[in-house]
Amino acid sequence: MRARMALHVAGIAVDTREISLKAKPAHMLQVSPKGTVPVLVLPNGAVLEQSLDIMHWALAQHDPEGWAADAQLSTAAADLVARNDGEFKRALDQYKYAIRFPEQPPEVYRQAGEQFLQTLEQALQDHDYLLSDQVSYADVAIFPFIRQFSMVDAAWFAQAAYPKLKAWLQGWLDSACFAAIMQKYPLCVD
User: Has domain 2-66 been given CATH number 3.40.30.10?
Assistant: First the structure.
């Protein structure tokens, strides 16, 4: 999702295919043997297999909204995204797939994830977005994971004490960028 959003805002046209991870097409595995998505094959034949790499590449080509423009925020953005992609993603996976992690009840995993939600809520006390009053790539990189977290137990999230974070999330859900990238694509089969 975050790779698609960066490609969209950069105005880069790509051939997008939906992949069933239970029936991975042979062509995809030839291009990217690790067999995960997203995968972007560049015009020069180079392959990008990480969503953050795709984001950085797309925004380096064209960044009309300045998502990656503020060099002073780059370290803070990188740190926040690293925390999202590390400890928060682990807690999210355990919370979302709690049946696979029976060592603890889902609420324990949710509480672990909430530590990051609290960080984001605090950041949004001073700004409209996570790092400033302008969107940065950190907002886009983190948004899909907060969306997933909010959907695990939507009733709990609706009453949770994160008013700024919920408003930030709703803003992304209502955005034209999100609507544009959420269209369905044909399933790729070999």
Answer: yes
